[in-house]
What does this fold into?
Amino acid sequence: MTASLQDPVLSVANLRVSIGGRMEAVRGMSLAVARGETHCMVGESGCGKSISALSVMNLLPRGIIRTADHIRFQGQDLLAMSERQMSRLRGDKISMIFQEPMTSLNPAYTIGSQMSEVLERHRRATRRQAMDRAAELLARVGITAPGMRLGQYPHQLSGGLRQRVMIAMALMCDPELLIADEPTTALDVTVQAQILRLLQKLQQELGLALLLITHDLGVVARMAHRVSVMYAGEVVETGTVADVFAAPTHPYTRGLLDCIPVPGKTQTGEPLGNIPGVVPRIPPGFAGCGFRDRCMSAAPECAQAVPLRDAGGDHSYLCRLPPDWTRVSAA
Amino acid sequence: MTYAIEVRNVYREFKPPGGIVRSGRPVRAVDGVTFSLPAGDVLGVVGESGCGKSTLARLIMGLLPPTSGEILVDGRSLTGMDRRERARLIQPVFQDPFSSLNPRHRIRDIVGLPLASQGDIPKARQVDRVMEMLARVGISSEMAERMPGQLSGGQRQRVAIARALVLHPRIVVCDEPTSALDVSVQAQILNLLTELRRELGLTYLFISHNLAVVEHIATEVAVMYLGRIVEQAPAQDLFRTPAHPYTKALLSSVLTPDPALGIPDVGLGDAYPDPTNVPPGCRFHPRCPSAFAECAATMPDNIRKDGRLVECLLATTS
Amino acid sequence: MSSVGIAQGLPGRRRFPAFRRLATLLGVAIVGIALLVAIFAPYLTPHDPFAQDLNLRLIPPVWMEGSQPTHLLGTDQIGRDYLSRLIYGTRISMLIGVLTVVTSGLIGITLGIVGGFYGGRTDDFVMFLITCRLSIPLILVALTVVALVGSSLAVVILTLGLLLWDRFAVVARTTTMQVRNLDYIAAAQAAGASRMHILVREVLPNIANHLVVVATLEMALAILLEAALSFLGLGVPPPLPSWGLMIAEAKEYMFFSPWVIMTPGIVLFVLVLGINLLGDGLRDMLGADLER
It folds into this structure.
């Protein structure tokens, strides 16, 4: 991996998102995505991963407030940008694809007109040029007979094809950063593998910075260069994917990895590891570790500020425990 | 020997909403399925969306009548069976615990419904059994007074399991019971289902698109494709030596959390299965990486050998 | 590109602007007062609403010249106390509103739920009934009924109740179709619950919020229709103090004594406005999205 961390395409420092002053959705999230790098944000529902991505794009619903030390895209400060400047960036240098392509595509327009519109808006291209580009990209994302597909409507395509169209559409303006929020969750497993392969191939060929949001540790392991594990609005562990999967250190990461059945590894009929309890809602003014209520190794000092510890290399985690801690037996 | 579930050559068609000018062709969601499941086993049914696995589940629960064919549960035919009797034999657990519990009813009333519907169980006895079952699945008596909206997804799925088991049925049909849950909660529910099966001697029909989950819980696995079972085998055999190309593709698409491995090439083409337009010959041939000329013309037979079933021309020739 | 899909999972406060809240409160107040007045009418009236006194004809209300302090809103053309008649009129209007909605609701909701739940032929039949109902000219039917059986309060309620069920049926049908395919219905079927239980205990509570909104709209409509029918002489028979009838009886005097037509008109307007505001508020609160 040649990605250098000196000049990340996207850099977020200490992002906080508060929902109506009643709930802290994101609590001091920092993250950097370099050119040519796939960075996965993984976590369960409500951990703040999607809302962090929306914060970067400044697409938060009304009543939700973001603050951060900085959010930088290629050196530009996104926090200081007007909505007008942001909308010029969105779909151009920063693109986003969502979980359900059906709700992101307008059912009333053909694939071709929706794709070309992006280029006409951002690049003042003619319809002819834009259509040519759209056809080229559809072929590139593995759609056969792109000319015919351009004239079709979203409902005429299968879920997998629609997600391919969404990817092609996101690439219309040669983006530097692609944010993909659970792009394969609504798809069948075989189609998921195809779409992920495509994303990986495009990312390598185009040198994209890819921020991939998922709940699936399998997707993370197979796709990511770096991973950030999120829990209750914080990045509790981050590092290269090899480091984190070889030596998961935060109790939550370890617990999560124990939860998934792995063919050939977990025994049929034997109990899986599990994390008791449910994901908490964090009120404003909450201090200490967000995971302590569910943690087997929780101690009184977990209610105070938790240190960010170094586990060697780029690998760090947010816990009082040393890197070589061993699990207290659950029983 | 009586089987817990016996499905004999079952078909189920759906008529698409017809226009005035022409009515659409009927869609065969289940297209000639036959299998039998011994008591105490767990049959995992896997396949992609639209393969007919959920329709099959509804047929077996008696919520839909088959277009033709016969379904026996515990040796008795479902057709004409009294709804109370059926409820004592077979119960469902659904995928989405946010739509499977009536949002306007209290938890204890939801779990008590199968008992109340029997019509001959005294009220006090009903309450005892509801509380006993809720305690068994890990729901406190205080939560029994709440509404479903006040519970988390995992708690709601526990409630759904309690409702399914309160009549002590022989068979539980689990239709994607963990797909809507978070990873950590999925493990809790899978462990609970495994424990309950052992304690109560239950038979599960376990439908899922997640092969890792099926491998973990099933003793026997059936792979469905466009309404038919294309391969069926004991779980270990199927995962170790898959015979059908589709099973192989499904297995290779499982993403285990192993960073050393990349994204697999499942080898399936662009073509997507469309139940309204089933291809001639082998229905999998447009996507099959091992297809040859004859596959487009000849529908493969069911090959049954050593307790396995494969429906593929390759298995016939070799 | 929309962010709706992602924003759904977030706890957000339903936007409920101050103006809308004020309007709803106004609606609640109006309907509440009307209900109290209707129930306690005999204790509130200063005079017998039927007592005539030809010596006291067309006395103007207190704010006008020539008024009498005992008759706050004056008297009508045959000397009956106008305030007392208005108070009793509230009773008639509310009675008609409520009973019509109960009758039409019973018919419409039953048809709608059955059609929406069972679909197929049953649903075709229900749809046909709704179409037939929408093709019936209301006023002509009322005219025929009155011509055949004569006019009375019961006839008005029954006529309106038998004719105003269509919106209940349409809303109950579409909402039932949405609920029918949810898993809790399948779970209840698998639990061995009876059809009656499923329709009444599983479906009905989940579509009730939509139906409550329809009920308010229909109630307002019934009250207006009763006034119209009474005005035409097809509704409540004299001497009952229906507001529509009061307007009809006063129309000959409206140029010289405009209040006799103004007061019942204003009261009618206020009550119908109140019910509609209440309905709007309920719709916002219950999250029922219907077009009107």
Q: What stands out?
A: The interface with chain A takes residues 1-7, 9-13 of chain C (CB under 8 Å). The mean pLDDT of chain C is 82. Chain C has one domain: 17-286. The first helix of chain C runs from residue 4 to 7.
